[in-house]
Amino acid sequence: MVTCEVCHAKESREAMMDEIFRTAGKYVRVDHIPATVCIRCGEETFSRETAETIRLRVRGQAKPAKSIALEVFEFTHASKI
Length: 81
Ligand SMILES: [Zn+2]
Fold this sequence. Notes:
Blueprint: E1 12-23, E2 26-38, E3 44-45, H1 48-59
Antiparallel strand pairs: 1-2, 2-3
């Protein structure tokens, strides 16, 4: 049983997540990460083993499954539309 770090709910479900990570100045997406999702607030949590596996995949020499273009938007009050 995992207790949510955000809202301290004890109910969660298992899910597969896609997450974007930044490493060495570039962004990479890791698909199908097994995660625990809080039923109340939706906070996603990865196990330590999962986080370590992601770190090795992203920083290691593993070959990406594919490459995609990524558009980046900045959320800032200073910019005018
Ligand atoms: Zn929560």
